[in-house]
Amino acid sequence: MISVDIVITVYDGFDDVRRCLASVLVRVDNRWARLVVVNDASPNPKITDYLRDLAGQRDAMVLLENPQNLGFVATANRGMREGPERDVLLLNSDVEVSN
């Protein structure tokens, strides 16, 4: 049973975002956690394409896309509202999760 949402807000920093998501996907078990990524209207089309492609490959990943930039707090709140019954782990998009 999924009991935790890992919420990651994304704006820019393609390489950081890629490393962050790779580290999360390798180390988090989707039996207990769901990944919620919120694209805060990134101006970088590489990020948008990457996130859409990744979300299409992952069952335990939700991709939300803001139509306009809302800033970190509003974007994080949007991600946390996706699973109000779940605990939330909020990660910055430049974090690399270790063992």
What features would you highlight for this structure?
99 residues, alpha/beta, four-stranded parallel beta sheet, 36% helix, 24% strand
Structural commentary:
- The protein is of the alpha/beta class.
- Helices cover 36% and strands 24% of the residues.
- Strands 3-2-1-4 form a four-stranded parallel beta sheet, with helices on both faces.
- Strand 2 (33-39), helix 2 (45-57) and strand 3 form a beta-alpha-beta unit.
- It is globular, with a radius of gyration of 12 Å.
- 25% of the residues are buried.
- The model has no long low-confidence stretch (mean pLDDT 94).
Question: What is the secondary structure topology, with strand pairs?
Answer:
Elements: E1 4-10, H1 14-27, E2 33-39, H2 45-57, E3 61-65, H3 72-80, E4 87-91
Parallel strand pairs: 1-2, 1-4, 2-3
* Strand line-up of the largest beta sheet: 3-2-1-4
Q: Report helical residue fraction.
A: 25-40%
Q: From the alpha-carbon coordinates, what is the Rg to the nearest angstrom? A: 12 Å
How far apart the termini lie comes to: 22 Å
The low-pLDDT segments are none
Shape: globular
The description of the largest β-sheet is:
4 strands, parallel
**Helix/sheet category:** alpha/beta
**Count of individual helical segments:** 3
The percent range for strand residues is 15-25%
Whole-number mean pLDDT = 94
Order of helices and strands: EHEHEHE
Total count of strands: 4
